[in-house]
Amino acid sequence: MNYETVTLAEKIVVGVSAITENNDPNMGKIIGGLWEKLYYEGINDSIKNKVNKYAIGLYSDYAADTYCVTAGSQVSRAENPELTVKTIPAGTYAKFSIHGHMVHAVNEAWGEIWKMDLDRSFTGDFEEYLTGDVENCDIDIYIALK
Q: What pTM did the predictor assign?
């Protein structure tokens, strides 16, 4: 799977979060539940100071087998105290650009990424959904590198 190495500035993400792990049989439901909460409960519309219309799925706070998942948006300034605020650190990332079904293409890409020998820093990996078309979505996946 091809990728390009990019340098990113720090990003602030506001949204909803949960803790999970890859071995949790409910992981898919947990992550899917965050996206449902974001869009079907109107939380996305309440996020202030959005930088763009892209949705972000952030994986952070890695500890042993667990990590925090946040579904939200990048903002210029966090002004939603009732929501989770996370920072994507500035740094070097492997950027994977994929296209396809929003869920299936991302799951397939992550399956390939986990098999790769990347020098990961585990400081914050994220998906950026560039289009909202579920069947034909453009998505960039960023993996933080050392």
A: 0.94
At residue 27, the 3 state secondary structure works out as helix
Query: Computed over its alpha carbons, how large is the radius of gyration of the chain?
Result: 14
**Residue 111, token pair as written in the block:** 């399956």
Question: Which tokens hold the place of 117?
Answer: 């020998």
Q: What structural domains and CATH numbers belong to the chain? A: 4-144 (3.20.80.10)
CA atoms within 13 A on the CB side of 95: 13
Amino acid 61 reads D
How do residues 20-68 score in pLDDT, each as one tens digit?
998 899 998 999 999 999 999 999 999 999 999 999 999 999 998 899 9
